[in-house]
Each structure stands twice: as structure tokens, then as C-alpha cells.
Specification:
This protein is of the alpha+beta class. Helix content is about 15%, strand content about 30%. The chain has a single domain, classed as OB fold (Dihydrolipoamide Acetyltransferase, E2P). The chain has a 5-stranded antiparallel sheet. β4 and β5 form a beta hairpin.
């Protein structure tokens, strides 16, 4: 038997791992809390990985994920990703975005559905559409648990001047 020592907790709440079970299909107010440009598993392209945080309601604090295949040998995948990114930019009221960090902390509405479980994957959420929030002001992502280390990592991964991250 191992003796467990509880860490000091100043606010009295026990921290728990985030719940990744799907949220019910609905419209949720979300912000992009984290973004990262990653290589595909096959190594043949890149995708923009977005972590969105629900900021209101019963599921406040839950994380939704969106991966956009912006650099992929499949032109249909790239077209779908570019349309989704364009919709996100419009929902954030941003034009000519050069860095995904420009989209962080801006409230928008995400229309969420559930992708049923298969033999190899558990059920998950998928985002079908993004819409603007009328009169929304940016939310400071640091207050939502997104630290400076995330921003610093994003800067290290950023593209050379004049290039978009996927170029």
C-alpha cells in the first residue's frame, strides 16, 4: 500500500481531469482557447488543431476540439478545412488573419453534434457551424486557464514573416 499525500489546495476544490464525454447536441457559446499547427500522423500534411472552451451554461469549461486539414494531399479535405476556417474567422469578425492566435478569446456560437462511437473510436462531438455572437467582446484567455507557455509555444511554431503557418 502507498501513502498518498494530498497537494495543498488554496481554494478548497479538488482538481479533476477534463471530461471528454460528448456534450449534447446544441448551440454553445465558445472561445478558441488554444491552437497549434501539427503534422499529420502520416506525415503528408499539416492541420490546425483548435481547442475551444464552452464559456456559458451547464457545460461551461468543457473543451471541444476541431482539426482543420489545411495542408493535405486530399484537395477535398483542404477545401472543407478552408471553408471551416473562413466561417470561424467570420464568426470572430476577423478578416485577413495571419496567425490563429488572433482568433483566441473571441466568443462565437458553435453548433455541436455527436459523432456516434465505432468499434475503434468512442463517441465524440463535431462542430457543424460557427456563428457570431452579437456585441461580443474578447475574453482574456489567461483567465480561462490558457497560460503564457501556450502562447510562447505558438510563437515558436509560427511561420516565417510573410507566410501563413500552413505555407
Amino acid at each position: 500500500m502507498a501513502k498518498l499525500i494530498q497537494p495543498a489546495n488554496t481554494n478548497g476544490n479538488q482538481e479533476v481531469l477534463n471530461d471528454f464525454t460528448p456534450v449534447p447536441p446544441n448551440d454553445y457559446k465558445v472561445i478558441i482557447a488554444k491552437s497549434e499547427f501539427k503534422k499529420t500522423k502520416a506525415g503528408t500534411g499539416h492541420y490546425l488543431s483548435l481547442q475551444m472552451k464552452i464559456i456559458e451554461g451547464e457545460y461551461k469549461g468543457r473543451i471541444l476540439f476541431e482539426n482543420l486539414n489545411l495542408d493535405n494531399p486530399n484537395p477535398t479535405a483542404v477545401e472543407i478545412a478552408n471553408k471551416a476556417l473562413n466561417t470561424i474567422c467570420k464568426a470572430c469578425n476577423k478578416v485577413g488573419v495571419q496567425d490563429s492566435e488572433e482568433l483566441h478569446g473571441i466568443p462565437m456560437i458553435a453548433t455541436v453534434s455527436i459523432t456516434e462511437a465505432t468499434k475503434t473510436k468512442p463517441a465524440s462531438n463535431s462542430i457543424k457551424f460557427y456563428a457570431p455572437v452579437e456585441g461580443a467582446a474578447p475574453v482574456e484567455t489567461a483567465a480561462l486557464g490558457v497560460g503564457a507557455e501556450v502562447k510562447e509555444a505558438a510563437k515558436k511554431e509560427s511561420a516565417p514573416a510573410g507566410k501563413l503557418p500552413w505555407e
